[in-house]
Task: structure prediction
Amino acid sequence: MALDSERWFSEPFSEEGVAFSLEVTGKLHAEQTPYQYIEVYQTTHWGRLLVIDGCVMLTSRDNFTYHEMMAHPVLFTHPDPRNVLIIGGGDCGMLQEVLRHPGVERCVQVDIDEGVTRASERFFPELCRANDDPRAELLFQDGVQYIQDLPAGSVDVVIVDSTDPVGPAEGLFGEAFFRDVYRAVADDGLIVQQSESPILHVDTILKDLHTAMRGAGFSRVATLQYPVCSYPSGWWSATMASKGADLTQFREADAVSKPFKTQYYNAAIHRGALAVPEFCRHLLTDQ
Amino acid sequence: MALDSERWFSEPFSEEGVAFSLEVTGKLHAEQTPYQYIEVYQTTHWGRLLVIDGCVMLTSRDNFTYHEMMAHPVLFTHPDPRNVLIIGGGDCGMLQEVLRHPGVERCVQVDIDEGVTRASERFFPELCRANDDPRAELLFQDGVQYIQDLPAGSVDVVIVDSTDPVGPAEGLFGEAFFRDVYRAVADDGLIVQQSESPILHVDTILKDLHTAMRGAGFSRVATLQYPVCSYPSGWWSATMASKGADLTQFREADAVSKPFKTQYYNAAIHRGALAVPEFCRHLLTDQ
Result:
């Protein structure tokens, strides 16, 4: 059957011949910023839907898997994360997850497009509850430039919460960017980058990302898998890198006794997400 | 944008306001059997697509996660599975995975609809390579009746590879059916049932399934999660039950040294799939 475009928002991913659709009751917002086209819809069963340049960014109902799996594994892998930097993340959901960690003293969010944050504050207030936290700093500028200007070794964890590697986010997937990150993080510093779909991108984006991170000097790279219903294939990944720390080990006791609630993440889920499917084994060269 | 029904096959899941679509180049087969309406499409990027009563059953490209995660975890959890029974599974992909285990002496597949198997032999020959295995027996009859007629304690593992719990498969999700299974399996016998989407069905089908399995006498129940791109939400589950055996333990050394190749399953994936997301914790009463 055809999906009526009045009733359904559809994101076709033509390179892979697959589309994801949500039933909507109306469009709440549409805005062309200097960088991107932002839309917000009301859906029938998934709460509100944020779309940038035609791609689903998040829904109220299922964003928890993405935000939790990008924030908590890397933060529980680092021995003592105090200074955290988010590149992208304009919807502020990542900032909120990071600041659930009481040990974090400062979290800077650098998104090039202030329009995303203003739309999120208006339509996704549940993601923006930490925006006024005194440890939070929201900057609206180019993240690549920001990293280049940082003192060497000044950051503990960098979370790259970017859109797909086309358009504004393209520079966030290349070796030059990771060299800047390598310089900016401390010796025990970590980076995590959203790394698209294992089944769709294992031999393209994921492989290139591993190569670029290693090329930049990160000697350990590990990819976690987790579900994100509203992204192409419903199956997503996050790729962490370190200057030597074993990424398969984490502060498991701290994860078990974490002083905050989650909907998806826990220590067993963290360990499970590190399992590498057979068809992805060739990504691994050091584990 | 609208998805043109000439170019896209769409499965809307209206109760949850979500739809999944694949780009197709043509319909290869359509058949009304006494039980169901079967269609086969050629897709642009996912190989062939099998549809029953409008619902995606499998694609050539992504069926491996489902078949492997329904077959191998339960078979590596049982200490020595020799007699295996598949209820449903007419596409024969499950039979093929089961018979990769050299210790299995007999695998009976009981699907009510011979039309599914004949369509699969014609359009998905890669799933039917074990149909002529001397250990395989293909029966086309009612699985509920078949189980009732089995001698007590005569089966090691029952795999319920059914369609959704509406229509022909409805009886395969109820306590009466699981009581029949309980009688048919040996003391160390196990059952696994495909149990739909964790995010969509945790408080409906999944909760009811746990209750029904326990009500039938199975004292341990455990749900595994894994991705199936082409099913609603892209996030799927399998629920195992035992008469007392700890379902979190399995023959891990055997899984590591398995004498066959897989695309998704391995011992680490098995352990990882047993991790229970925070929002599913209330399903667990014995772990």
